[in-house]
Design a protein that fits this description.
- By secondary structure, this protein is an alpha/beta fold.
- The protein has a single domain, classed as Ribonuclease H-like superfamily/Ribonuclease H (Nucleotidyltransferase, domain 5), CATH 3.30.420.10.
- The protein has seven helices and five strands, in the order βββαααβαβααα.
- Strands 3-2-1-4-5 form a five-stranded mixed beta sheet, with helices on both faces.
- A hairpin with a 6-residue loop joins β2 and β3.
- α3 crosses α4 and α5 crosses α7.
- The longest helix has 18 residues.
- The protein is globular and about 50 Å long.
Length: about 180
């Protein structure tokens, strides 16, 4: 039986995740962008997006990024550049939604990707921050440490098969969100 939230949202929620070459949104690049669109009424997945991003034409860089993503190098060779990925992302989902993510740097990476693609980043400035929500939730249940995403996976008994796959990770984040909201 699907998990249905008692809480209704004003807009659909777009959980998104990026896999990057590093942690600095001003210096590092997005090499995978993934998202799941959750229905505002029942929090079930309505749509999704997943794209690897070609950052370089150099074989050594492509092989390095392919290793990070655990995909064949040929997948990255055939992947679109970030400006095309940003346009595809925007065209698929539009802008009338609420962004949600686990990592506070993800919106900065997404905003930079849109800037590189000359795509307007005119989403609602209010972004659901899953880490903060999850931390407050787990504090109420006795967790006495700064949790990581793996801590939340363990707490909610979720398994990650491929920790560097942004689409799998964003689906797990959405599941954590649904579990928290169900109890609110």
């Amino acid at each position: 039986m699907p998990l249905v939230s008692r809480m209704k949202f004003i807009k659909d929620l777009l959980f998104f995740e990026v896999q990057t070459t590093g942690a600095d949104p001003d210096k590092d690049a997005v090499i995978q962008l993934s998202a799941v669109l959750l229905d505002k009424d029942n929090l079930l997945e309505k749509n999704n997006f997943n794209s690897c991003v070609k950052v370089s034409y150099l074989d050594s860089v492509i092989h390095e990024h392919a290793k990070l993503l655990n995909v064949p190098a040929e997948v990255l060779r055939k992947s679109p550049k970030i400006y095309d990925v940003a346009k595809q992302f925007r065209n698929k989902f539009g802008r009338d939604l609420l962004l949600a993510t686990y990592n506070f740097q993800n919106p900065l990476f997404l905003k930079n990707a849109f800037k590189k693609g000359a795509v307007p980043f005119d989403y609602d400035p209010h972004i659901i921050q899953l880490w903060t929500l999850g931390y407050i939730y787990t504090l109420n249940y006795g967790l006495k440490k700064m949790p990581s995403l793996n801590t939340f996976f363990d707490y909610f008994k979720l398994k990650s098969k491929s920790p560097f796959d942004a689409l799998e990770r964003v689906r797990l984040e959405a599941e954590i969100f649904r579990k928290i909201i169900k109890e609110v």
